[in-house]
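Attaching the record inline, Q. Sequence:
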Amino acid sequence: MNILPNIPKDKQGHFIIGGGLSLASGWYSVYLAIFLVALFGIGKEVYDYKHPKKHTAEVLDAVATFLGGIAGYLPYLIIGLI
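Structure, as predicted:
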């Protein structure tokens, strides 16, 4: 079942990965979370660009990863404000 039918599954996957990376590393450091999300988001698109026969590089994939990273860090911000 596709919960968000208007958002492609590929973008949903990038969002989830970005959120997971941020959630998993954000407890240690916001800088580590930003670094990992950026590294994965940009690195994956560079990999896709260098393998055009099997992958398509898209800026929106990296954007979806970054947005997921922001969403994944929100619990730390909310807990810190309480």
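Residues 38 and 57 are 15 Å apart (CA to CA). The chain has a mean pLDDT of 91.

More tomorrow.
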